[in-house]
Design brief:
Strand order of the largest sheet of chain A: 5-6-4-3-7-8-9
Shape of chain A: elongated
Oligomer: homodimer
Chain lengths: ~200, ~200
DNA sequence: TAGATTGTTAATCGATTAACAATC
DNA sequence: TAGATTGTTAATCGATTAACAATC
């Protein structure tokens, strides 16, 4: 039975499920079960069924889930059947790698704007996409109604860039700078800090 | 009172605390409180005090925490007062960016080995570090007793590379490929999939 | 001292798991 | 049909929060 208040931790697992389904589909598999999915992800089958039950009934007793159908449903839930335009700010080594990364296209995203503050980079192109002056960020992002950005600028510039984005109407930010960004209610932030991940693992070594 | 079984979710927040303390220290601040830290991170002050209490008593009633002292303590807890050698496998755009990233050094990690399978890359150097043949990964990683790797190879090669690493004695893997890796008990895996993060946010848009 | 903040306890809240009727 | 697996309920487990004595 669909609920109006799905826990965020459940939302966080949906992309993981989608990624696993995608992998199975790529291998030609057509059907899976909560048990198989759980085994592969290190999650209990009960949790997977419970998670999915927040949104509806997608399986069949006795057989399991049609992979293509479940993929479609989760994509719809996460709103990634459509393609979102994303702006990328900061075209250093990492920004460059992100800009050239081919893995966004068929998972719901497309980088359509690049920004940097370095005059030597502004006006140059990556895969035919021009690097724009970050001074024009607010204006352009607002005009294009961009809702999602990735921030790959140095730590000391990250909050400032985030604030600009927020003023321009951005609602989701993926931050690569090693600093916790603050944002008002209604604007979501995800942090991707490799060192934090590594530190989390060294505890157990 | 230090406990022998600290929840993993608490371990996961420690690097976040460390990152915030680092930021405050860089700004010249010497003292902080659970309230200030919590405000900055969007976490309740009670949670921060509770988290820290798993490991000991690091503050002073009435005044708060000496930032440098708390940093030292958390570094010790996470075992990052020392510097860990890290191997990086897959020197594409992303691997290249990671290899050149300067943010590891003073947070407990140093990339000392680079691997790729492309003959055109093998033998070339990035910042004076030679790219080695992935065929020699198992041998070299085992001999050097490397415990931590970052995997930045294409999705279809990631599990195979992970298996090699595990055989070589690796205990912690940070995976950038968009696939959930499986590893035996005792080997920790963290996934960094930008698309999964983005998908998690689009739900709320 | 008075004010502030810690560390800790107990209560609350929420998430996970086990179990099973329903049913394909 | 017999076997398998879902969706859901209730129980368990664990994490967060509120409150406050201790104390700097």
């Amino acid at each position: 039975m669909p609920s109006s208040e799905v826990p965020d931790i459940v939302i966080g697992r949906m992309p993981i499920y989608l990624r696993a389904l995608r992998f199975m589909a790529a291998a030609g598999q057509e059907i899976t079960s909560s048990h198989e999915l759980g085994q592969r992800l290190g999650i209990s089958s009960a949790q997977i069924r419970k998670d999915l039950s927040h949104f509806g009934e997608f399986g069949k007793q006795g057989t399991g889930y049609r992979i293509s159908h479940l993929q479609d449903q989760i994509k719809r839930i996460l709103k990634v059947e459509q393609e979102w335009e994303v702006a990328l700010i900061g075209i250093g080594d990492l920004g460059h790698a992100i800009a050239r990364y081919g893995g966004f296209a068929d998972r719901g995203f497309r980088i359509t704007l690049l920004f940097d503050s370095d005059p030597a980079k502004i006006g140059t192109r990556i895969d035919n996409l021009e690097i724009l002056d970050v001074a024009r960020l607010k204006e352009i992002v607002a005009e294009r109604r961009i809702k999602i950005v990735m921030i790959a600028v140095p730590a000391q510039a990250a909050q400032q860039v985030a604030d600009l984005c927020i003023e321009a109407g951005v609602k989701a930010m993926l931050n690569y700078a090693p600093i916790t960004l603050t944002a008002p209610e209604g604007v979501r932030v995800q942090h991707s800090d490799p060192v934090a991940y590594l530190q989390r693992m060294t505890y157990y070594l």
